[in-house]
Design goal:
heterotrimer, A mainly alpha, B alpha+beta, C alpha/beta, A: 14 helices, 75% helix, disordered N terminus, C: GMP Synthetase, Chain A, domain 3, 2 domains, 4-stranded mixed sheet, 13 strands, transmembrane helix (chain A)
């Protein structure tokens, strides 16, 4: 009985990873990106709908992974689609993961240099952040899960405190009329909100690490549900505080919401620093888990040790993150990653599941 | 095993578990001729002036005897009134004729079983082996014609009385603290936690110093894997002298690069007993009042025994206060730097106005200002620690009041900086574990550098870095950050809030104790 | 040894580098706490002479707090020096004017503590506020909690005070926050809310401030046209009271009415108020009902005839107060509907909420439509207590 040597994730840990991964850049931009599409205050319905879609996709992913206990997508894709096609698929997923990591650090650097560190070069902001991430993932999935568990309660508490402070400028009228322009724009907007729930694809990998893979569906439901709850509060408070018309002109509406009130008599009058703090931590979690997923994929496909891949990916992620020249291109990159994920993880797992079922029946 | 090759004769000890018979024992075996044996002894330790060789005749017989002991280590009163008296006077009375020319074997046995009324007495024949025991306070009785000598356990070095522990004061709780004497310490443990399952397993550490070390644990609670791990690490200790338990701590810890202490040290027997009951292992070393407790987790360092002695609400609130203190002592100056030099927009306008006013004329950026004051206060603290007791507090007052006041009026630092530094320093005193306090003191400087470069972002980076380190760190296989994560509700009953004792029915689960509940 | 040297060099390098990055010491800043924007009608004479004039010259007055002035404020204001510093500069737009200020002060102007932006009457009448305020919305250093106020006459005058220790911008903001106790003050309008209002195309109201003997006074409200986004007209104190009652966005406040019998004044102090605008649509005709409910107490009454406060009297006082409130709200409604033909009272918004389809039809010409729509009031005052005196 050797203690502390387990590399297995408990079900709560898996759910925490999922929540931390899903919550990232979306918290700051979701109200605007969805308001642009909808132009009505019914965004919150779209968020729920998007969450439900994500849950559906997540369940498919879990069902697929459960067929191959103890193995990640990188390994079983070769089994389903053959060695070459499977490896190719794995590589695409790896590219997706590290592009997402690159996108997250780029957004991080943009927001940080705008609100916290005007004048500090972007590389200087990113470098220490990336190195700390590398240091963490060197320890494997176990420390990652534990760090995520450490960060989540901090996030939840601070987020709820900060967002409830904005009750002072909340106006219910800003959220009305409900369904003023019918149901069609809501459905149209789902494509934006479902992208905010990206992160569900991590189940392709962590189901393999779970000590009770049978509970993975529950993990998906709880994890996505929690994230949905967060997004819902964010969207409702932001729209309620700033109104749809006000949100449209903001690049980072959530920060602007927190910046638009001051509460006197406390140690702080302003709370955006708290919001940015937890947001940076959330970016860190997303960055580390995608970074880990990508390096794990490389090591499993090439059957080599994971360490060198982690070091090797670091400059790649950095360089990809530096590609967009301005903010619009950054958002375009985000959209591109989002839509490719929709295809990659909305359609592909279903196809793999069907193939696997057919093959499985034959065997 | 390298050591044994260098030395001709490895020092053996009768207390060692796997005693190997040394082949080459010729010159150190007793010859039976008292003068030759005495010469051998004198060759070994005779050049020491504190070793006494008292030669005398047993009773009225012509049997020569020598008592060898170290001045100050052995109980002189016992020697005078008990041993010498029995051997020289009472021997005659007991034997009647007093002219008994007995076989040597008979004499040794006879003395052992009839004359010397001592609890701890044993026979030995190898001179080399007995020397360390003499140096630890035993007396050796050599008899002419005997091939065995008697080792009399009368060690009574002048040790401290059991006093209140200096480094860990408690308002409520036992006033006893460990002393430098190992047997006193084990006695304290045994008395307070009287259970037959309390195991003391003895080791000898230090190739030259041969210090006794005891690993204590409760057999049916502690996880055997942890106990085995502790024992094997202790056996691997390879050093000439182990001065203090700090040596042991550093030689058996998991990660020597980590800033965090990976064993807890305490002077309080009640604390050790509580830890044993949780399923942890205690390491006691002869010659130091500090016992080590392993494994340790971060949250354990923030618990004091008084948390449990006081009622649960006050205990919980005090514990909460400690979390605040640890936060301030780590991040206080760094946050000040980041707000004053980077994010002036985040402080309330009126506060910003007053800071602007007070900082007007201060020639340094806030990082330099903070460094000056923090370094000054660290020096003060260190100076106060080393000074004789009556002067120490005076220095503190002089430093804090006069230097602070003068620095402010000279315009070198701003008054708010003085407040920040003072609050930080006081917060760091509120951490019950001194070694953790030291770690946080220098981590605070690291955090200040991060803040000086990146402001609040730097503070967050530092937090992420430290947390990344903490989640990777393990103490004897137990994750250092346990209790906080992974989430386990039964463990959280004794985390930030200490639940009423009636509810605290489980032992900490990260230790994987054999007996997971506290039920009787 | 080499390692430690390297580490030391690294740390030193980082510290020295950091000096070039983002850090700036707080005492080197001049905190902008209030900004007044005026039209520079006097103009830069030379500029106009040399033909640079394009008519768009802004006059920007920033109220700064610097290390020197803050010291005066914290020292109890013993000295004669002012606790603030006003700097005025002109430019073609806000940012150029702000940058021109660099030429005049040694401190770095820092906008995150800006409390209030005061827009001069002339500027507000002539320029689209969306354009004027664009800089303040765009610049991340400007907080969106900064309040917007329209000045009657010159804006820069409102930032001057007779007493040296009073900081006008802060005083102004604190006055606006006194809203809880008066119905004559509007809900504060931070930039964040203003942006939504400007974007939505509806007309709305902004708090107005005027200067009297070098001191500030909150006087009524400014009506901003939703189409042109410029100032149309002002509402006076009484009309503002009416606005607060219709919107129900208030808490305390006095209503003075008269006892019908002996025409002695009764002062009703409201403790809570609630209002609901209820649109009803029948075919093409739209009508509104405004339901106002308030609870309060008798604050003062001059009837010293010794009449006890029996319930009959209370009823009478309630009636009188209701009548007075009705007069207030009808007064302002009349003014907006008939004189200015502008909906600044939020009727359009309530129509949008309950009848989004109808709103879509009338939205484009709403201000015109609104002026002909009948509005009913139903006011209910209940007096809960009469204070400590009977």
């Amino acid at each position: 009985m050797k203690i502390g040597s387990k590399e297995k994730l408990s079900s709560p840990q898996a759910a925490v990873i999922l929540v931390n991964y899903i919550l990232a850049a979306g918290i700051l931009t979701l109200p605007r990106s969805s308001a642009e599409k909808l132009e009505s205050p019914d965004i919150w319905m779209t968020v729920i709908l998007g969450g439900l879609f994500a849950m559906g996709a997540g369940i498919i992913i879990v069902k697929l992974s459960q067929r191959y206990p103890g193995r990640t997508i990188y390994k079983y894709s070769q089994e389903i689609a053959g060695k070459w096609a499977g490896s190719f698929l794995g590589l695409i997923i790896i590219i997706y993961f590290f592009s997402l990591a690159a996108y997250e650090i780029r957004v991080l650097s943009e927001v940080t240099s705008l609100f916290l560190l005007e004048g500090t070069p972007i590389w200087a902001i990113i470098m220490p952040f990336m190195w700390i991430g590398l240091y963490l993932i060197g320890g494997g999935i176990d420390p990652i899960a534990r760090l995520f568990e450490l960060i989540l309660p901090i996030t939840v508490i601070i987020f709820l405190i900060v967002i409830s402070m904005s009750m002072g400028i909340f106006e219910l009228d800003n959220l009305r009329p409900v369904l003023g322009s019918g149901i069609t724009p809501i459905i149209k907007g789902v494509s934006t909100t479902v992208v905010a729930f990206l992160g569900i694809e991590i189940m392709l990998i962590i189901v393999a690490f779970m000590d009770k893979p049978a509970q993975a569906v529950k993990v998906v439901l709880i994890g996505t549900g929690t994230s949905m709850f967060f997004y819902l509060i964010t969207v409702v408070m932001v729209i309620g505080g700033l109104s749809v018309d006000g949100v449209l002109t903001k690049t980072w509406p959530t920060i602007d919401l927190i910046r638009s009130f001051e509460i006197q008599g406390l140690i702080f009058e302003r709370f955006e620093s708290l919001l940015l703090t937890i947001w940076i931590m959330q970016i860190f979690t997303t960055y580390t888990i995608t970074f880990y997923a990508a390096s794990l994929g490389l090591s499993q496909i090439f059957k080599k040790k994971i360490g060198p891949f982690q070091f090797g990916l670091l400059p790649v992620i950095y360089l990809i993150g530096m590609i967009p020249a301005n903010m619009n291109e950054v958002f375009a990159m985000g959209d591109m990653i989002g839509y490719s994920a929709l295809i990659l993880f909305g359609v592909l797992p279903l196809a793999l599941l069907i193939i696997s079922k057919i093959k499985g029946d034959k065997a | 095993m390298k050591m044994s090759q260098i030395k001709k004769k490895p020092i053996k000890s009768s207390t060692m578990k796997h005693e190997k018979k040394n082949e080459d024992e010729g010159p150190y075996e007793l010859t039976g001729e008292i003068q030759r044996d005495l010469q051998l002894f004198k060759k070994e330790i005779g050049h020491n002036s504190d070793v006494h060789f008292r030669e005398f005749n047993i009773g009225l017989t012509s049997i020569r005897a020598v008592l060898i002991y170290v001045d100050g280590l052995s109980d002189k009163e016992l020697i005078d009134k008990h041993i010498m008296k029995s051997l020289m006077q009472d021997f005659t009375d007991a034997k009647g004729d007093g002219r008994h020319e007995a076989k040597e074997k008979f004499t040794v046995d006879y003395i052992k079983s009839h004359i010397l009324s001592l609890g701890e007495i044993s026979a030995a024949s190898n001179i080399k082996d007995t020397v360390p025991q003499i140096l630890k306070g035993s007396a050796v009785l050599l008899l002419d014609g005997a091939f065995e000598m008697l080792i009399l356990g009368i060690a009574n070095g002048k040790t401290r009385n059991i006093e209140e522990p200096v480094s860990e004061q408690a308002v409520r709780g036992p006033r006893e603290g460990f002393t430098e004497n190992l047997s006193d310490n084990t006695a304290l443990l045994r008395r307070n936690g009287g259970t037959e399952k309390l195991i003391f397993s003895k080791f000898i550490v230090g190739k030259r110093s041969n210090k006794d070390l005891i690993v204590a644990y409760i057999e049916d609670i502690a996880n055997p894997a942890i106990v085995e791990e502790v024992k094997s690490r202790i056996q691997q200790i390879d050093i000439d002298n182990v001065m203090e338990s700090g040596y042991v701590e550093q030689l058996i810890e998991d990660n020597f690069m980590s800033p965090f202490p990976q064993a807890q040290n305490t002077e309080r027997p009640d604390r050790v007993n509580a830890a044993l009951m949780e399923g942890r292992v205690a390491i006691l070393l002869d010659g130091t009042p500090f016992a080590l407790l392993v494994p340790v987790t971060f949250s354990m360092m923030l618990q004091a025994s008084e948390d449990y002695y006081e009622r649960w609400i006050s205990g919980s609130l005090i514990r909460l206060l400690r979390f605040v203190a640890i936060f301030i002592s780590l991040f206080g100056p760094a946050l000040y730097i980041s707000f004053v030099s980077f994010h002036q927009g985040l402080i309330p306008t009126k506060l910003a106005m007053s800071i602007i006013g007070t900082r007007d004329g201060v020639p340094f950026p806030s990082i330099i200002e903070a460094l000056i004051m923090e370094v000054a206060i660290e020096i003060l603290r260190e100076a106060g620690l080393r000074l004789p007791k009556p002067i120490g507090p005076a220095i503190g007052i002089v430093g804090a009041l006069i230097i602070g006041e003068a620095a402010v009026s000279a315009g070198i630092v701003s008054p708010i900086m003085v407040i920040v530094v003072a609050v930080t320093a006081i917060s760091s005193f509120a951490i019950p574990e001194y070694s953790l306090g030291i770690s946080l003191r220098y981590l605070r400087f690291v955090c200040m550098f991060f803040a000086a470069v990146f402001g609040l972002y730097g503070v967050i980076l530092f937090f992420l870095f430290i947390s990344s380190h903490l989640v990777k760190l393990k103490s004897f296989g137990v994750p250092y950050i346990s209790l906080a994560v992974p989430y386990r509700l039964s463990d959280w009953k004794d985390f930030i809030v200490r639940f009423p004792l009636k509810v605290l029915k489980e032992r900490p689960s990260m230790l994987h104790p054999k007996d997971p509940t506290r039920k009787g | 040894m080499k390692m430690t040297q390297k580490v030391l060099i690294f740390i030193l390098a980082v510290i020295s580098l950091s000096g070039c990055w983002s850090s700036k010491e707080i005492e080197e800043l001049g905190l902008i706490i209030g900004t007044a924007i005026d039209l520079d009608n006097e103009g830069e004479f030379e500029d106009r002479q040399s033909g640079i004039d394009n008519g768009n010259v802004f006059k920007l007055t920033n109220q700064l707090i610097t290390a020197e002035t803050a010291n005066n404020a914290t020292n109890g204001g013993q000295s004669q020096v002012r606790a603030y510093k006003n700097i005025t500069e002109t430019g073609e737009a806000v940012l150029p004017a702000l940058r021109n200020m660099i030429l005049r002060i040694d401190k770095r102007a820092f906008g995150e503590h800006a409390k209030v932006i005061i827009i001069g009457e002339e500027l507000a009448r002539g320029y689209n506020l969306e354009q004027v305020l664009d800089f303040f919305r765009r610049e991340q250093e400007m907080r969106s909690s900064t309040l917007i106020v329209i000045a009657k006459g010159s804006a820069s005058k409102t930032l001057e005070s007779a007493e040296p220790t009073v900081i006008p911008a802060i005083q102004l903001v604190e006055m606006i926050q006194g809203k809880e106790r008066s119905t004559k003050i509007l809900t504060p309008m931070p930039i964040a809310k203003m942006e939504g209002q400007l974007n939505s195309g509806n007309s709305f109201l902004i708090q107005t401030v005027s200067t009297e003997n070098n001191d500030r006074k909150l006087t009524g409200a400014a009506m901003i046209d939703g189409n042109t986004k410029t100032l149309r007209a002002f509402l006076n104190d009484t009309e503002t009271e009416g606005v607060t009652w219709i919107k129900g966005k208030g808490k305390g406040g006095l209503v003075r009415s008269y006892d019908e019998e002996d025409s002695q004044p009764i002062v009703y102090e409201s403790l809570s108020m609630k209002s609901k605008i209820k649109p009803s649509v029948q075919g093409d005709s739209i009508s509104f009902t405004v339901k106002i409910e308030t609870e309060g107490r008798i604050g003062e009454h001059w009837d010293i005839s010794g009449k006890a406060f029996d319930s009959k009297y209370m009823k009478k006082a309630e009636k009188a107060t209701e009548k007075e409130i009705e007069r207030l709200v009808k007064n302002v409604l009349e003014k907006t509907q008939e004189e200015y033909k502008m909906d600044v009272l939020g009727f359009g918004r309530s129509l949008q909420i309950s009848h989004p389809q109808v709103w879509k039809k009338v939205k484009n010409n709403w201000d015109e439509t609104f002026s002909d729509i009948p509005v009913e009031f139903s006011i209910n005052v209940s007096i809960k207590e009469m204070g400590t005196s009977r």
